[in-house]
Specification:
alpha+beta, SH3 type barrels, 5-stranded antiparallel β-sheet, 5 strands, elongated, transferase, Site-specific DNA-cytosine methylase, methyltransferase, plasmid
Length: 166
């Protein structure tokens, strides 16, 4: 709430109290009202489907463990994006995303890597070592697989009978 102007802080508190029928609101309710007020003054979402971005966990406990992971924009909302990562899809506010200005061909390559990782992850017999490799690939700092990383991914696809779709 401290990120807001005093007038907006008052508006947040009054709205939150009103939502709970005149009682003291929970922190979660206040946080939701703050988010709505902050979103009113933000610029529109400029992300596009299929773009590559990085998740910045910052102070968001819901993104714990996802900081630094790259993802593919799967859906564009007004003030957030649904981002597909190595281990699922997450609704992420714009303040928790870092844009990677990759060419469309690089974005396509990253989408293919993401799809390959997700097909493997869906296997219920996936061992911890395989899961650790997939986690590493989901946290890459470059927009491609090295030769060794590609071989590891292909080995896992072969081992678990996942068909490569390119």
């Amino acid at each position: 709430m401290t990120k807001l102007e005093p007038q907006e802080q008052q508006e947040v508190w009054l709205t939150a109290v009103e939502l709970v029928g005149g009682k003291v609101p929970t922190g979660r309710i206040v946080k939701d009202v703050v988010q709505k007020i902050m979103e009113r003054s933000k610029l529109p979402n400029t992300y596009q489907w299929g773009e590559v971005c990085q998740i910045l966990a910052k102070d968001n406990p819901e993104l714990r463990g996802k900081g630094g992971c790259w993802g593919i924009v799967a859906r564009v909302n007004d003030f957030s994006c649904t981002v597909k990562t190595w281990d699922g899809e997450y609704a992420v506010g714009l303040q928790h995303l870092k844009f990677y200005n990759y060419l469309s061909a690089v974005c396509e390559q990253m989408r293919e890597i993401c799809d390959r990782i997700n097909r493997l992850r869906e296997n219920e017999n996936l061992e911890e070592a395989a899961r650790a490799v997939l986690k590493h690939l989901g946290e890459l700092k470059q927009p491609y697989l090295t030769g060794v990383e590609e071989k590891l991914l292909m080995l896992l696809e072969s081992e678990y009978g996942v068909r490569i779709i390119l």
